[in-house]
Amino acid sequence: MPEIGEIARIIHYLHQHLVGKTLTLVKAQHDENVYGKVGTTAAAFEKALTGKKVEDARQQGKYF
Predict the structure, then answer these.
(1) 15 contacts 63 by C-beta, under 8 angstroms
(2) Model-level pTM?
(3) 7, 13 in Cβ contact below 8 A?
């Protein structure tokens, strides 16, 4: 599990390079443990995010 300082650096990087931009291409690898438990697929995830604008990046403890 990452340390809080590492998460803070990732959030800072995302703010510099991703926040405010529109996702034109999204690629996700199918993983039954990730998508199967919520009843979706990697393809559906890609489709849902493509064309969306990244509005913010935040952290909740060791998650971002």
Answers:
(1) no
(2) 0.75
(3) no
